[in-house]
Amino acid sequence: MKFTPELTFAGGRVRPLADSDVEHLLALYQHPELPGQRPLDPASEQAQLQMQRMIELSVQMAATQRGMMWLLEVDGEVQGMVSAFDWQPSALRVTLRVDGLPSLQDQHRAVALTACMDFLASKYHLRNFAYQWISGQHESLKTLLQSLGFERTAVLRQAWRTGDNQFADIEQYHLLRSEAKPVPGRLGEQDNPGQNLEKSFHSPGESS
């Protein structure tokens, strides 16, 4: 069954992780963007096993509504990954993050994020999208988030560990979408929107 969709945008697409993506992930994690995150050694057997486990978890997380991962491709080349985590279905809330190679441009980060949010809002009715900017990341990321409608709502002081005795601030951004909340229906009226993407979701009275 398919739980994570392929989504296209101008100039590229995001797609589910596949077993053949270990090398792509290893290349991505040689250029970590988060402060304190160490590059992975692509020749390390342990690192390869970690990436294989990440691919397995990406399927399990999407199937159980705990998270979702997409590889981000621009002009057919993998340049990053979009992650949705801290998924709280009852609160219609999820946190997003984009990890990218140095070649990934902000414009492609923006359209990839938008495509993923549009899908999560339409399929799972998520409305509250969060993004954490860690002190030390590129400043342009904050401008990008604000251009998409995110607002800085809180600062968590010394909340991100960057070393044994070193910490960085977290700036919390939120975007509250305007889509209407789902209306509960009787059992059997609707397909479960949290399950197989091969099933379409229709409201009562809507043609298939």
Account of the protein in words:
It is built from four helices and eight strands; from the N terminus they run E-E-H-H-E-E-E-H-E-H-E-E. It has an eight-stranded mixed sheet. It has helices at 22-28, 45-63, 106-124, 140-147; strands at 7-9, 12-15, 68-74, 77-88, 93-100, 128-134, 151-163, 166-176. Helix content is 25%, strand content 31%. A hairpin with a 2-residue loop joins strand 3 (68-74) and strand 4 (77-88). The model is unreliable at 200-208 (pLDDT under 50). Helix 3 crosses helix 4 (140-147). It has a domain at 7-127: Gcn5-related N-acetyltransferase (GNAT) (Aminopeptidase, 3-Layer(aba) Sandwich). It is of the alpha+beta class and 208 residues long.
TL;DR of this structure?
It is built from 4 helices and 8 strands, in the order ββααβββαβαββ. It is of the alpha+beta class and 208 residues long.
What is the topology?
Blueprint: E1 7-9, E2 12-15, H1 22-28, H2 45-63, E3 68-74, E4 77-88, E5 93-100, H3 106-124, E6 128-134, H4 140-147, E7 151-163, E8 166-176
Parallel strand pairs: 5-6
Antiparallel strand pairs: 1-2, 2-3, 3-4, 4-5, 6-8, 7-8
Helix pairs in contact: 1-2, 3-4
Region (Disordered): 181-208
Protein name: N-acetyltransferase domain-containing protein
